[in-house]
Amino acid sequence: MTVAFTSLLIQALTMLVVGGASTVLMAATRSDSAPVDDHGQSLKLVARPERIVSLAPHTTELLFAAGAGSRVVAVDPASDFPAAATQLPRVSAWPRTDLEALKGAAPDLVLIWGAGLRAEQRESIARVAPVWVSEPARLDAIPQALRQLGRLVGEPEAASLEADHFAHRMGALRTGVAQGPKVRVFYQVWARPLITVSNRDLIGDAIRFCGGQNVFGHEALAARQVDPEAVRAARPQLVVLGDGSTADAPGGESLERWRNRWIAPAPVVVAIAPELLQRPTPRVLDGVERLCDAIRNVARNTAGHSPEGAR
Question: Which CATH architecture has domain 177-301?
C-alpha cells in the first residue's frame, strides 16, 4: 500500500462516526431486480459495461476476482494487484479527482470507495459515468459485494464462484479461532503519528472474528490518533503492525522498539502486510489467517493468565 493511499485510508476512516458513513446516494435506476451497492443504491445498466474504471485498490481487486478484469481500462495509482492491473493507465481520485483523465478513459462504469471520496467528488464522477460505491465494512459482507458486483458487470457465475469460495474458506477459518478469554489486541495503522482503528472498520471485525478484543474498539471514530501511554495503559497482549513496518525495521517506529518500555509482560509483536487486512477483497482472508494464528498462539501461551490491570 502506498503512503498516499494509507493517508487516504486514515483520512477516510477518521470521518466515519457512530451512526455510519454518509449515505448520500447518486441518481440511479431503482428496481427490485437491480444490483445494490454498499450505499444502498441500486443500479441497472442498459448494457454490459465494456470500459470500467476503478478508483480504489480494493475495487480493482474485486473486479478481477469477479471476472471482469479484461474490461478494466484504468485504475487509481495505488492499485497494485493483480499484476495485470499495474499495466493499466492511472486516474487519480484523491485528494482531487482527475476528471479530465477520467473522461479520457471513456468509461461506461466507475467504481469508487465510498469513504474515500467526498460527496461532491462522487457527484462529479457520476456526471461522467454511472457510479458503483464499494465499502464492505465486515468480512461477511465481501461475498455479498462480489455477487452484487458480478450481476452488475455481467459476470454472475464467476463472481458467485469466488463468493462461495470466500464463504467456505471463512467458515473453515472460523472453526480454528481462539477459544476462551479474549486476547487483547492493539492494531497500528500508522506509526507517525500513532494511529489505530476501532471496531467500525474491517480490521476491527477481523480481530473479533479471530477471538481478539480490540483495545480501542469502543472508539466512536473508525480511526484515531492515540498516545503511546494510552496504549501501554491498555495492556495489549498482541500488537499488530499494519503499516508495512517489520518487527526489526532499522530506524523504524515499529512497536518492537518499545518492548523494553512495556510494563511486563511485554506484548507479542507481529507484522501483517497492510493490503492483507485493510482491503475488503478475497485476499483479506490471507491476512485474517495470519491474525488468527497470532491470536491463537497468544491465547495458548497465556492460558490461565491475564495482563495485570486488564480492564
Answer: 3-Layer(aba) Sandwich (3.40)
